[in-house]
Amino acid sequence: MTRDQSLDDGFLELAISLAGDNTAGGGRPFGALVVRDGWVIATGVNEIHARQDPTAHAEMVAIREAAKLLGPDLSRCTIYASGHPCPMCLAAMHLSGIEAVRYAYSNEAAAPFGLSTAAVYADLARPFHEQRLSIAQLAPADAADPAIYRAWRDGTVHHAAAAARSPERVAAPAPFRQRAERRWPVPAGRKTRP
Ligand SMILES: [Zn+2]
């Protein structure tokens, strides 16, 4: 066994151990590590249950923790995951520059327990119009040359699009609005309505 294989095995064992420990608290059996240059930068376990957050997969939690230390560019990092990554986590790995992922248990092994994401992979491989999710572009007038993208590139502030919309059209129904305002107060100096 080479040194790298030994390291891989050790990191995977740790990910599996985290996954096992997570079930004690009612969590799902998934754990993950972000490793760079042989060092564990961050760990994560599936926290969907604890956080009531459907995106709190072990890999996502580990990526977020690693990014707190390293910033959003996670190049030179490897993820070790107890289970086959789902499409969301795999996309997050691509977008954050993660260079490699090593996982222990396959989707096939997870399927009998209802823990496989193979069906989502299959759905995403289909054209938009054949997917379960309704996906449609509702193109604005400047769709071919978005003003907000140009303003971002040029370092200017773009207000025209917001001004063109009536607050009544974009406002959420009152119960949702009240809840949102209660939980996330609008910063002083920023008005949500004219
Ligand atoms: Zn995932």
Question: Which helices and strands, and how do they pair?
Answer:
Elements: H1 3-23, E1 31-36, E2 39-45, H2 48-51, H3 58-70, E3 77-83, H4 87-96, E4 100-105, H5 107-110, H6 118-124, H7 147-154, H8 160-164, H9 167-170, H10 174-183
Parallel strand pairs: 3-4
Antiparallel strand pairs: 1-2, 1-3
The protein binds zinc ion.
Offer a concise description of the structure.
This protein has helices spanning 3-23, 48-51, 58-70, 87-96, 107-110, 118-124, 147-154, 160-164, 167-170, 174-183; strands spanning 31-36, 39-45, 77-83, 100-105. The protein is an alpha+beta fold and 194 residues long. It has a four-stranded mixed sheet with strand order 2-1-3-4, sandwiched between helices.
Keywords:
alpha+beta; 4-stranded mixed beta sheet; 4 strands; disordered C terminus; metal-binding; zinc; APOBEC/CMP_deaminase_Zn-bd
Give your account of this protein's structure.
Pfam families: dCMP_cyt_deam_1. It comes from Paracoccus cavernae. This is Nucleoside deaminase. Residues 6-118 form the CMP/dCMP-type deaminase domain. Keywords: Metal-binding, Zinc. The N and C termini lie far apart (68 Å). β3, α4 and β4 form a beta-alpha-beta unit. With 194 residues, this protein is of the alpha+beta class. The protein contains ten helices and four strands. It has a four-stranded mixed β-sheet, with helices on both faces. The radius of gyration is 21 Å and the shape is globular. Bound molecules: zinc ion (ZN).
